[in-house]
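Invent a record, attention on tokens:
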Amino acid sequence: MQELEAVVDLSRGGAPVDGAELSLGLSMPGMYMGESRAAMRALGGGRYGARVVLVRCLSGRRDWVAEVSARLRDGSEARARFPFEAAE
């Protein structure tokens, strides 16, 4: 297990978006690796961060998906998924 700092830049129409509520979830496709969800804190300038723990899979798999959920001040919501491979 390793704690990581995840950082997301949120923008709309090319302009940074502040004042949103963001959360980050980590999952491994097709394999339950426990619940890993964290609220993201505002860092300023449309940037948000969270500390998350990435669990090492005993099978050796390293493919993960980060899903960011955002609720903007105007009540609209957005989600984005980012597949990635963890370093050894």
